């Protein structure tokens, strides 16, 4: 494992480059999921020590995946629509197989 302040190469012979401060791994998994991949976990373990990984890993998880962000999602009150008659009317569309665009049905 070669390392600089922010840049870590995990694996042997051209492994994956991990940039801890940028929450970035060359494999792409960390950027897509928001959760550190195995390469990032190895880099975090290298910098924080194996004993501290459990406490430090939360700092490297995307903020939208935290418990507080999840709870914040449901802070506002959702008011149900009591009766189906009050639902807005949605126009009907027809999708013909082989076409990629929706077409309006003929009137009547």
UniProtKB/TrEMBL annotation:
Report whether Transmembrane shows up as a keyword of the record.
Answer: no
Recorded GO terms, molecular function? zinc ion binding
SWIM-type domain location is 16-48
UniProt entry keywords in alphabetical sequence = Metal-binding, Zinc, Zinc-finger
Q: Which InterPro entries match?
A: Znf_PMZ (IPR006564), Znf_SWIM (IPR007527)
Tell me yes or no: is Zinc-finger among this UniProt entry's keywords. Answer: yes
Record's superkingdom?
Eukaryota
UniProt-recorded name of the protein? SWIM-type domain-containing protein
The organism named in the record is Acer negundo (Box elder)
């Amino acid at each position: 494992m070669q390392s600089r302040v922010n840049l870590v190469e995990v694996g042997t012979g051209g492994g994956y480059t991990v940039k801890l401060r940028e929450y970035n791994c060359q494999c792409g998994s960390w950027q897509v999921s928001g959760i550190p991949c195995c390469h990032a976990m190895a880099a975090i373990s290298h910098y924080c020590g194996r004993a501290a990984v459990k406490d430090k890993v939360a700092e490297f998880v995307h903020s939208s995946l935290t418990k507080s962000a999840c709870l914040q999602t449901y802070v506002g009150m959702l008011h149900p629509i009591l009766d189906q008659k009050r639902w807005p009317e949605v126009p009907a569309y027809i999708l013909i197989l082989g076409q990629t665009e929706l077409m309006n049905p003929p009137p009547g």
